[in-house]
Design brief:
The complex is a heterodimer of chains A (439) and B (322). Chain A is of the alpha/beta class and 439 residues long. Chain A has 15 helices and 17 strands. In chain B, helix 1 runs antiparallel to helix 9 and helix 3 crosses helix 4. Classes of the chains: A alpha/beta (439), B mainly alpha (322). The interface between A and B is large, with 80 and 47 residues.
Chain lengths: 439, 322
């Protein structure tokens, strides 16, 4: 039987056993919560509260700064203490709203749609937009933009990205096991938006229990198929997943909608369900706290805005002093300077490693083994691109398809000479993207 | 505000934060292990003198690289073991009767002239061991083609075949014939090659295309048709197997792209056929591979993979952006 997958990719150590059997634990927010106004791709949100204002849980505190942008909501009740620059996971300073929790947990009254089965397309889209939902797999693309393609009748597949191909992460896995009906509900809402679409729930084969459970729950729904995809990183990358499940291909200049697909992550679908059915905005997300330096790896439901330090403290802290802490998975996550940064809508995990494999491996000259070329899911030649990047040769970089790199990190992972391929290519891509914006 | 608890600093780097276990030195070590059956059989076949030739070649290669780095104040690079591989491969490509100083000189040439002067590992445009072998053949033709030893007094099987004499196929497969130290035993080379393939160090694209093309060429132009004995003799005799599995697959001097490897393998097969069938000498593997090495940049340029989601006709779009 042919397997649903793509060509290239790598098999890093999975490490999911650490936290996969730990049920999701709800965390209580601490004293201070920080909400950066830029938690998504696109224009930063504009704060609509002032210092000293009292806010309720679920109240909008920053409004989308354009069409490609998203609202931000307070996850606690309390007082706005400051609106100032704060450091975020990437190390940048971003304007942030700081709220002091009064622990009263006063909530705004939510206005759910009466019955989404009868609601119009616009009402559903408004509910999604009004809840500030963004792609929660890591990129943070505003979901309402994704759901508003130019020709909605051409959308033929809604793909639920349940691959969770990043090693160590188990938040999506727990979500699927514990709240499968919400995931399916979210999918049904999207199918309601696109009449010609078929729903595909794509799950990596290393989660057979999820596949079985979701198959059982959807067996009488003709519009939803559960597909097991081959376990390989980066199976959950949007382009790879579309190819694996539908055979269609897109490049960096296209959107999934160009080939009639819309891809949404598990958590995003659950957020859509919560927004439409309960009228709840996006205020919480699942964060996996794991790694060999963490005393008790677990999955938490975290109020967005809580600092990583508080999340870690709730988990019992470090077992040993880690060399490296990462926000997100080990392949595509950001390494952090410190833990005093807030969790955001796109925080998938907190990972702590006792030893840093990157620092331990000294880069040496390329021996042209070609492993990077054979694992590259974007079918470019990372070693050539990295050379071009080192020489600042933008023309060659573009000619060899540098912009087609999805920064998945397979090349750096596999390189026996331990070259910083992904890093070089990423910096060159940043320069080119900045150049294009200038024009 | 930030980091008020303790002043711990964490290491930061670009993604990915995990790395595979493979290292350059590890790969070279596997190549060395894979060459052990051929080396062992060479020693068994040709006696103690083979040990001397191998030791001189390896020692000279490592020492040359060590001194080169020392004199030019470069970072020491001998620990990646590639010099050992070069020395060993060169030794396996030499006749056992070669004067030891020539063997040492060959290794020096391989490391210093072919590899280090071009920028060290990864920068050489031809296989160092083969470059050195050709250097020795041109400089000392008599010593390099003297295959007369105590054990074997006659010509190498390929030379005999070319002269129209009868040869013993079974001996050739086992390797009990004259020739260079490492090339005689088909069995030993295949064992090593299987190890490399199983360990994922090399794949079958280049050796496969090379050998298949060569067999087809021989069948069509060899004037003996697809006579199994004739074909087997050509495959087992001479440096074809050693070349196809251990030298044509040298990472640095073969194309990285899959289709490039196919073209490269086919080219080597045709060239080896031309040299062996139409050329004056019985051998041709080293020259074929060196010629192939020279074409690698060109082959790579034309067999660049097409980025995911593009058609060949759309490649111009890569430069333009949206």
């Amino acid at each position: 039987m042919p397997r649903f997958t793509f060509s290239g990719g790598v098999h890093p150590f999975e490490g999911k056993e650490l936290s996969k059997d730990k049920p999701i634990t709800q965390l209580k927010a601490g004293k201070i919560l920080v909400y950066p106004v830029s938690q998504h791709i696109g224009a930063p949100a504009t704060p609509i509260v002032n210092v000293g204002d009292r806010v309720l849980r679920g109240q909008m505190i920053a409004e989308a700064g354009g069409f490609v942008s998203a609202h931000i909501f307070s996850s606690v009740s309390g007082t706005v203490k400051a609106i100032e620059s704060r450091r975020v996971v990437t190390g940048d300073s971003v304007n942030s709203i700081v709220i002091e929790n009064d622990f009263l947990d006063e909530e705004v009254k939510y206005n759910p749609l009466m019955d989404w089965n009868l609601a119009s397309r616009e009402e559903i889209l408004d509910a999604v937009k009004g809840a500030g939902i963004v792609g929660m797999g890591g990129a943070g693309f505003p979901t309402h933009v994704k759901l508003s393609p130019k020709e909605p009748e051409n959308i033929t597949y809604i793909i639920a990205n349940c691959a969770e191909c990043e090693p160590y992460l188990t938040s999506d896995y727990r979500r699927m096991l514990e709240e499968p009906e919400k995931l399916i509900g979210g999918m049904k809402i999207l199918l309601r938006l696109f009449d010609n679409a078929h729903g595909i729930i794509a799950i990596e084969e290393n989660k057979p229990d999820c596949i079985a459970l979701l198959k059982k729950l959807t067996h009488d729904d003709k519009r939803i198929t559960v597909k097991g995809v081959y376990t390989k990183y980066p199976q959950g990358a949007e382009r790879m997943l579309i190819h694996a499940t539908t055979g269609r291909r897109i490049n960096s200049t296209m959107l999934p909608a160009d080939v009639g697909c819309i891809v949404d992550n598990v958590d995003t679908l659950v957020a859509i369900y919560n927004a439409v059915v309960y009228g709840k905005p996006l205020m919480e997300r699942i964060v996996t706290v794991t790694g060999d330096a963490v005393s008790d790896p677990k999955n938490f439901k975290v109020p967005i805005g809580m600092s990583y330090q508080e999340v870690l403290d709730a988990d019992g802290g470090f077992k040993v002093q880690p060399e490296k802490i990462i926000c997100g998975g080990p392949m595509m996550g950001f390494s952090m300077f410190g833990l005093e940064v807030p969790t955001t809508k796109t925080s998938t995990a907190l990972l702590a490693f006792e030893h840093d494999e990157v620092a331990a491996s000294e880069p040496s000259p390329c021996i042209k083994c070609g492993r990077c070329v054979s694992v590259c899911p974007g079918r470019v030649m990372p070693s050539v691109l990295a050379d071009a990047a080192e020489h600042g040769d933008m023309e060659k970089f573009l000619e060899y398809g540098g912009m087609e790199c999805c920064e998945c990190g397979c090349c750096s992972f596999i390189c026996p000479a331990k070259r910083q391929l992904t890093q070089n290519i990423k910096s060159m891509r940043k320069i080119e993207l900045a150049n294009r914006r200038k024009k | 505000m930030a980091d008020n608890t303790n002043q711990t600093t964490y290491k930061v780097s670009s993604n990915p934060h995990v790395r595979s276990k493979a290292t350059t030195g590890g790969i070279m070590l596997m190549v060395i292990i894979a060459l052990m059956p051929a080396t062992g059989f060479g020693i068994y076949n040709f006696g103690l003198r083979a040990v001397f030739v191998i030791c001189v070649c390896v020692a000279s290669a490592v020492l040359s690289e060590f001194l080169f780095n020392l004199i030019l104040k470069r970072k020491q690079s001998i620990f990646d073991l590639s010099a050992v591989v070069t020395g060993l491969l060169l030794a396996l490509n030499l006749p056992v009767s070669i004067p030891l100083w020539m063997a040492g000189l060959g290794s020096f040439f391989a490391i210093v002239v072919v590899k280090m002067l071009f920028g060290g590992i990864g920068q050489n445009f031809m296989n160092p061991a083969l470059g050195a072998r050709c250097f020795l053949v041109i400089s000392f033709p008599a010593a390099m083609t003297n295959f007369v030893t105590d054990a074997y007094t006659g010509a190498t099987p390929l030379a005999a075949l070319k002269a129209g004499e009868n040869i013993n196929i079974f001996d050739m497969i086992i390797g009990r014939t004259g020739g260079t130290i490492g090339e005689t035993s088909l069995v030993a080379i295949i064992i090593g090659a299987c190890f490399l393939i199983l360990m994922g160090v090399i794949d079958l694209i280049i050796p496969g295309c090379y050998i298949v093309t060569f067999v087809l060429f021989l069948g069509i132009f060899g004037q003996r048709g697809f006579d199994p004995a004739f074909i087997t003799a050509h495959l087992a005799g001479g440096g074809l197997m050693l070349g196809a599995f251990f030298m044509a697959t040298d990472y640095v001097t073969r194309p990285m792209t899959k289709w490039g490897q196919v073209i490269y393998g086919v080219f080597l097969g045709i060239m080896t056929g031309v040299f062996r069938v139409f050329g004056p000498s019985a051998e041709g593997v080293s020259y074929s591979i060196i010629l192939g090495n020279l074409l690698v940049p060109l082959i790579e340029k034309f067999t660049r993979p097409i980025p995911f989601g593009f058609k060949r006709s759309e490649l111009k779009k890569l430069k333009g952006g949206k």
